[in-house]
Write a structure and sequence with these properties.
11 helices, 433 residues, eleven-stranded mixed sheet, two-stranded antiparallel sheet, 13 strands
Length: 433
């Protein structure tokens, strides 16, 4: 009997160290797994934040008080703008020469010459017998298309003109609103129905376009315009925009196209139509077109959405108002040329099966969609890491549950203990009674 007890105790002694070792190994595995998972998720979070910040600031205006100069292969200045320049961005100059940025060195961007652009192909040539026949046979339709509707808003509602307004930025009441008023009045004088929003989108930061997106979307849904313009001013020396057009001292107008997103090519063609019409009616009025490779500027919301830079903060506002009034001469020509009316109603489906303007399908900006993709990649990456490190879905689920339980135990622990204590006190009170 004594011998049996001794053998049993010996077996227990042998098993105890083994169990202790297994427990240590499991604890070590748990520590390594949780540490690896935490490091992996932290890395994905850093990547997410980095890309998000990059997307939000890319291809916006510079805010350091400086501007960018684009030079050709010979070092000659071909374009000046306060927009942030990146490799792959393009410009069309006032003389319709197109360049692409190949490198950026501080405030100077080096560009290669792509070629001359013949804008005659973008002009409305339907001026002959066929056009007159359409007007004769369908006068009501011709009149309706000739009227058109235009929406105007201002993403950077603080932008102002120093010589006239006294400062370059006036929060919520920038001089750019008065430029928008002049644009609106000039369009109305031509029979255009105009909706000019006075919505504020301050402060002037990289998220202003996300805030103004709601304004643009609401205008498109309620007003269903043939075209929508986001009116700004640039931030360069005054001579860059100063001009004398038709005997008037005015500021030039720059068109800005966001190439990021599915509507980039469509907006590009629209900008070229506007430039072609302006060159024909008021030569020298349009300074050029800036094609931002990484921007969208809410232009995915409408096929005829355009960002306009009317002069610079160093120009007087009166000249800017005269310049935009001349630009108003161009708009009826282009929306009459390309317009088929206000388009499908917001949120509806047109005859071609395409979603209407301002629909939920176009509700997110390019940056927001990219952020959504990044979040999806983070989730998928985390799930893949769990699966590869554990070997099975069941084990992955178990480890994830263990991880979350461990991480949040300290947060929920005191509450659970307090709740248990209260329940225990209640039971003791009931027992006494």
């Amino acid at each position: 009997m004594k011998r049996m007890r001794m053998e049993t105790q010996a077996k227990i002694r042998r098993k105890v160290p083994l169990a202790v070792e297994v427990k240590k190994v499991n604890k070590l595995y748990k520590f390594v797994f949780i540490s690896s998972l935490s490091s992996f998720l932290s890395s994905l979070l850093i990547l997410f934040l980095t890309v998000t910040i990059t997307l939000s600031v890319h291809a916006n205006e510079r805010n350091d008080g400086k501007y960018s100069t684009i030079v050709d292969e010979s070092g000659n200045t071909v374009y000046i703008t306060a927009w942030k320049i990146d490799v792959g961005d393009q410009v069309l100059t006032e003389t319709n020469r197109r360049y692409e940025v190949v490198s950026v060195d501080g405030d100077v961007a080096n560009a290669k010459f792509i070629g001359e652009v013949n804008l005659s192909q973008y002009l409305d040539t339907d001026k002959g017998i066929l056009s007159r026949a359409k007007t004769f046979l369908h006068p009501a339709i011709a009149g309706a298309q000739g009227k058109g509707k235009v929406a105007i808003y201002h993403t950077h509602s603080d932008e102002s003109y120093v010589p006239t307004d006294g400062k370059e930025s006036i929060l919520g009441a920038g001089g750019v609103y008065k430029v928008g008023d002049s644009f609106s009045e000039a369009l109305k004088a031509k029979g255009i129905d105009v909706l000019h929003s006075d919505a504020k989108h301050d402060p002037h930061d990289d998220m202003a376009y996300e805030r103004s997106r709601r304004t643009a979307l609401d205008m498109i849904k309620s007003f269903q315009p043939d075209a929508i313009f986001d009116v700004h001013r640039d931030a360069v020396p005054p001579q860059v925009y100063q001009a004398n057009v038709n005997g008037q001292n005015v500021t030039k107008v720059q068109l800005v196209v966001g190439k990021y997103g599915p509507t980039g090519k469509q907006i590009e063609d629209y900008a070229l139509q506007l430039k072609a019409a302006a060159d024909q009616q008021h030569p020298g009025l349009v300074k050029g077109i800036f094609f931002a490779k990484g921007g969208d500027y809410n232009q995915d919301l409408h096929p005829r959405s355009m960002l306009l830079e009317v002069g610079s903060h160093t120009n007087d506002r009166t000249s800017a108002e005269k310049g935009i009034a001349l630009f108003a001469d161009v708009v009826p020509t282009v929306i009459g040329q390309t317009s088929g009316g206000g388009g499908a109603a917001a949120g509806t489906t047109g005859t071609g099966g395409t979603t209407g303007l301002g629909s939920a399908a176009s509700g997110l900006s390019g940056a927001a969609k990219s952020i959504g993709w990044i979040i999806g990649i983070v989730i998928v990456g985390g799930a893949a890491f769990l699966l590869l490190s554990t070997g099975s879905l069941k084990e992955a689920g178990s480890k994830l549950k263990q991880f979350t339980t461990t991480e949040f135990a300290n947060f929920f622990g005191p509450r659970v203990k307090k709740k248990d204590k209260l329940q225990s006190d209640d039971r003791e009170s009931d027992d006494k009674h």
